Amino acid sequence: MSTSVPRSLHDYGSAGRAMAVGARRAVGVPSIVLGGSFVGFGALVHQVGLSVWHALFSTATGWALPGQIALVELYAVGASVLVIAVAVGLTNARLLPMTVTLIPLLRAPGVPRWQYYVISHFIAVTGWVAAMRDGPTMVAEQRLPYYAGFAGVLWGISMLATWIGFALAGSVPAYVTLGLVFINPIYFMLIISADVRARSRVLAAVLGAIGGPALYLLVPDWSLLLAGVIAGSLGYLIGRRGGAHG
Amino acid sequence: MAEPLVPDVMPDAAFWWPILVMVVGAAATYVWRALGVALSGRIDPEGALFQWVACIAYALLAALVARMILLPTGPLAQTPMIDRVGAAVLGFAVFFVSRRNMLLGVGVGAGVLVLATYVRTVWL
Known about the structure:
The complex is a heterodimer.
Chain A: H1 15-25, H2 29-48, H3 52-61, H4 65-76, H5 81-91, H6 95-106, H7 113-120, H8 125-134, H9 143-169, H10 174-194, H11 199-218, H12 223-242
Helix pairs in contact in A: 1-9, 2-3, 2-4, 2-9, 2-10, 3-9, 4-5, 6-8, 11-12
Chain B: H1 9-39, H2 48-70, H3 81-97, H4 102-123
Helix pairs in contact in B: 3-4
């Protein structure tokens, strides 16, 4: 929790040791919350009538939960592939600035460029927050293995949790399954409302929350895209005009 | 859809079509990560374009969340609106009272809906 800058950078001895430390640190409250949200995702996939392989495939290849949920929800209401692709792309666009800020931190001399393209698939919010916090405290060559260990464990937890959620949805009473599917709306509602740093984002979120359901009644398959682009742009413009903390 | 279907074509399509949609979704996700590597160190992540994109992503996610709570599809749709909104409000309140304890907030939000549904369907 200390925010003081360490005088000397931490050295774990080897890349393997750094990876092991990363893997061990990944187990904690953030990974429990992450696991819970993937349990919710597995349950959602079950409720929509898809198979456990679809659930696992989505988590393995997407591994960015908001986009995965948008995809399954849009698929369930019969949206076109174009709408799904654009909505998932817009939902996950935050991965670009996240990657842009994390990669320079993980960079070390002599590491081939392709390794960064591989590790970039494992950039998602839980690991990113930890790496942005822990990365600067250790020697540069050990940051990439540390992150690989950390994110690898998170990815494994996500896969296991997805499977557990799917299996639970088919075996627990219906009223419990409802609760599992309800995890993610609550989780993301809390994440969004806890992040009030920028006025424009708060406005965008509030306008989106109002516009989303309203537009859904008019144009179910396009509502998500429309709400995102219209409310997001309005929030951005109004927030920027209104104050210094745009 | 117009072609005549052999009986065992449908289960195949029912399996592979969603996989294809997910491949498209994965590509629409990975493209940002790969672009991030390509552009790292060369663009300002605090720039105006990213602020705008972040606003769109926030609005889109908020729209999805509000829609899932207010107008859900599937079995959630059978729960009364008051139960879902009440559970969300309680989860929200507990989250902020507990100094943003995510486990507690999510647990209360989902738990209240389970409890409410249990009381309505099993007890009443």
